[in-house]
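Example record for the data management plan.
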Amino acid sequence: MGRQTVIVLDFGGQYNQLIARRVRECGVYCEVKSCKTPLAELKAAAPIGLIFTGGPNSVYAEGSPQIDPAVFSLGVPILGICYGCQLMAHILGGEVTAAQKDTAREYGKTDTFYDTDCALFHGLPKKGVSWMSHGDYMAQIPPGFVLTARSAGCPTVGIADERRGFYGVQFHPEVNHTESGLQMIRNFLYDVCGATGDWSMGDYKKTAIQAVREKVGDGKVLLALSGGVDSSVAAALVAEAVGSQLTCVFVDHGLMRLHEGDEVEAAFSKWDVNFVRANAKELFLSKLAGVTEPEQKRKIIGEEFIRVFEREAKKIGRVDYLVQGTIYPDVIESGLGDAAVIKSHHNVGGLPDYVDFREIIEPLRLLFKDEVRQLGRELGLPEYLVSRQPFPGPGLAIRVIGDITEEKLEILRLADFIFREEMARAGEDKRLDQYFAVLTNLRSVGVMGDGRTYDYAIALRAVTTADFMTADWAHIPYELLDKVSNRIVNEVPHVNRVLYDITSKPPATVEFE
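Corresponding structural encoding:
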């Protein structure tokens, strides 16, 4: 018998990946598919349950995302969330309409009352806070359904037809703001769908290693190692599977953070792989000399990365398989249903034409980022690599504003190291999603040791975010900022001023360039 699967059908909701992650946290494998997925394909996947996501549309509006009504005849339990709940009501004979008064429109944290006799809410308090985001409401629920949750402003917050295993909620149980939301999802999975909890990272590791061994056989495998979490974990998994048949090409462009190149190399010393470290700092810096425009920097670095990779790959000779660290959000972002293509992902960044390989292997393409980190730990990668801060492909080149020199890179490396070190000491590294230092192009007057200085300003950036599509600036304790600022000014040459960026995304981006 195969692994149990729950399918999340996407109706354009902003939390579709988060729903899938919550399901997996409960020990059940989950995939996100478009609401346009053919019924035959859904049936062939044999899911133990379906979850309909939220979405920005009104179910009764022309052109709004719909689904084949026959999905309700598959005999599979269904949980509808927000738009998904309204769509269920709309198709099955209820009435969904625009809220006629402010009380029926609900946004944000809302006191909610639950019928704990309903399987979805078993074991929960009868009252809790839920996260609402809806301008429509169910004026009439479908035949066969009963009301299972309400709020002060809306009597139809939750509905259920427990005989058929259909449940709907107007709020978002997948977000942290909803109290007991994870328990609601767990109740749906285990009490309604009959999940056994057969998804674990230890099992995934064994299965994935075996799959790579069977595919590769005695073939030769090539991987472009950036030193980032995804490519490092992919490399570790393939190394575990085929050992010396794998060649990792690590292009060290001289734009890494302090000690990072050495740390990446050391991390792979435990495996019997061919590890090639191409030291190309001088080449990259010569190509970047005098360049100040951010996009031009990116293009130069991307082009040179490929050229260096190409030269190293040519030395290896014939390659059968190429490994890429594509992860599940990359697959989804590259286009799912009506969702806009956020970015097209090709992890190597444009392969040399001549590299002849039979197939691309993407051993992480079913995993979310937090799961990739978990797999890295299972594979024995060091924590400094597994929990590595997100780092752009062009490296420090786009965190040095203006032209790039080795002196500027050294200034930034040390300032960034101090910031990260103090954040870790204070435990802020566990709370924040990304933080780093930037060397601005601003020089200003200062005073040090009774003398006038005219030196650089370092900007610090720290954000919290669920998906990096939007981000809030992080409220770091003043005492910590004070300590970081004092250390940077005293320990880093040519810096006399430290700034803290308090701009969210949007209007700013997370990176400066």
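Summary line stored alongside the record: The two ends are 50 Å apart (CA to CA).
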